[in-house]
# Entry
Amino acid sequence: MRIERELMRGAGPVAVLKLLEDGAKYGYELVEALSQQSGGVLGMGQSTLYPMLYNLQAQGLIKPRWRESSGGRKRKYYSLTAKGKKRLAHDTAQWRAVTTAMQTLGILPQVAPGLDGGAT
Amino acid sequence: MSDPAPVGPRWRRILATPISQLLRGRITGAPCPLEKLKTSSLPENVVEAIRAITTQLNGRLRSRAARQLVNSCKERLLEGCPKSQLAVQLGESESIASLIRTTRTATWVLDSAFPACLWPTVNAFVGRPRFRNVAARRQLNRVRRALRWQLEAGRAPEELASKHGDAIALGGLIYETRSPGPLLDFDLPENLVSLVLDVVQRTRLWPIEKSDTARELCAHFADGLKKGSPPNELIESFGSPATSARLIRRACLRNRPLAWRAWRRTWQSIAVSMAIVLVLWSILATQFIISGKPTITFDRVQEFDDVSRAVPANERAWPLYRQGLSTLTRDERLVCRQAPDGFASGPEGEHWAEANTFLAKHADAVALFLDATSRPKMGFINRDPDNGAWLRNCVYDESYELNPPDLTLFETRSPQVHDLLLVSRMFVGETHVAVELRDGNRCLQLLKARLKLATHNRQAWPSFLCESRANWIIGRTARHVVQLVTERPELFENEQLVTLFRELASVDISEPERLVPPPRKLTTADVGVPDHGLGEAAIADFLQKAYTDDGNGNGRFTFRGFQILQRIAIMYQKKSWLTYFVPPGNKDPQTDAAEATTFQALAAPLALMVADRESMREELLRLRQLLWTERKSTSTAVRFTEPEYDAEYQRLSDSAHLRLKYLPALIIMPNERSQTWSWRTAENRVERDTALVVIAAERHRRRHGQFPETADELVPAFLSEVPTDPYTGKPLDYSVKEGRPNVDSVGLVKEDG
# Structure
């Protein structure tokens, strides 16, 4: 299921930040992780992902670094900054509040689905 | 070796056809440039390789490339390069020729060792339509540098050639990013590189940002390929390149330095502001030019002519003046203009002999002029077909039409006023002749004629200029009378003195006759002051030609109004004698003209700031009234006080807001401080009154044997009262000096001093 654009605009950055919480990742890795761990719900085209990464970078939430991969080819790895970690904690709390409200209203079931590797 | 088919545009191929060669005198075809060069030191196979390259080129490029290649080969041989290597390097003739066509030079071919098998690869990167001349040379250098790095890293030329054999998209990417090295690391199919190129081109970012983006996208696709995704699937999952490029650009711009963003925002704000202003200005200008047209309801010239036509023919002086003036040729007019002292100063003048000859020759004209002064009205008609001969002599133009009916601009031409000055000059000269002949009767006749000429001058056209000039004629005549009565008292008999006194006393030097009835819209009630006749008509004429008319006496300033103002400013600049206006002397004409041009360019928005028709009319009439009051004033020392007119004019000039609001008033109303207005009523009145006192004193001397000690002794036998000096408000200062009566006025003393 694809989610609405406006909802994706709010959820996408949090999801990316959450994925980077475990360590630096490069673009294709993020695309795959988003698609797989969200069951395709938060899967986004690369045309959306890279601008989002540049935006997060502009906000100082992530920082890029060109590193040589095991195959000898260079990749751009993104990692969370301290500011990014704060933002992630803040956004997570907000999403939890939203989820709780949704559950209270009966829109969501009592056990909310979570992203692999992230706190639920 | 036969030349291959020429390449290039159609006209170039036509030029290379045999018939074209034949027509150009080249029966055997275009000569090979190599034949003109010394190639004996080069091996045959190298020459053939150069020939193979240059035969694919045309025109001057062919000769230049041949010369450059031969020189390069010679230099390389001198440097010790093996002959066989040269031939190998020149091996790919087709690719090298294509690159030469693109870069318009061949100096790069042999400047360093480069495997010949890579030239097709380089050509794939560089030989694109968008690369020409300098851009192509830059791209060539980038590609060669990148390939050389790879060669130095140990890659075989054949491997590079096979890897980048069809690298059109990669070539474009290299051009966009200016950094080919890292991009050559990715072994991506053409369609994926094309996608990256598409995105990168659309971002319109800096080359370094494009390079970073391109590398990241290439790395992304390389990762996808490595994971086993087919290229088409990767392209599909990427999404829209346009959206991606737009979002990437937006994000990258946010990543740029704060100073750059501030600079960009500033320029964006300026551009937006300019655009808004431009749009508003366009709307205003369109509305201003299209919809704001004046409504002309009356023809002032026609009204003037109608008044003149109503005068009975035998009472009109102009036909006689015109008849006399028509006898003056253009050259004779010039004599009259260029030798004024001969007429004004008489025998003491430098050009008296010329003036005397001129007067003798035109005695008939003088007689006509004298006859004209016996008639009561001037009776000048602008649109009179009988004016043709006179106008031809006057304005030197066969087809000249004086103030035609379709005159939309404000200025009117009045050459008759100028010509009356010639008549005045001739009368003065004739007076000197009569004095020399001791002919008192003739002298009296001419003095009376000069006074009547002043009246006719006032009637020639309703303008300040005519009024001032008429007053000036009276003043000069009075001054002449004083000179004659004091220096040649025997010239006039008692009766003649009495006549002269009566004529001078009866002449009015301040009150113009009402020639043109004011337009219906301008009544005494509108103005609130007594109707002065002439000025209001001119004001109404200006308003109807410069403003729209809403039917209730109001309206807004129009584009035509700015044109009128500009014309007036230009007239100031030229100081044209034909203009209706009196040029204000201490206005800067250059500034006026520049201001008018600027105002015309910015006309639409500025027109909103110019006063509406009603306000402008009120202000013009107020200025007119103040000016008239001042000019009529003979009881105050006008020269030494701050007149109300000047104060009001200055008030409008000093305020930026009022200056703009009443710009038309400031331009069309005279500046009283100007030197042009030296012919002032007060001064001319003093001259006239001085003549009256001097005549009275001479009559006193004849009756009592001596001049009176004071002016009071002349009252009431010779004067009803001693005239008042307008500069002091007291009676004129009379005395007897060196046995002659003398009258002083502070104003005249100041003027002379």
In short: Chain A has one domain: 5-105. The two ends of chain A are 21 Å apart (CA to CA). Residues 116-120 of chain A have pLDDT under 50 and may be disordered. Helices of chain A lie at 5-20, 27-37, 46-58, 82-105.
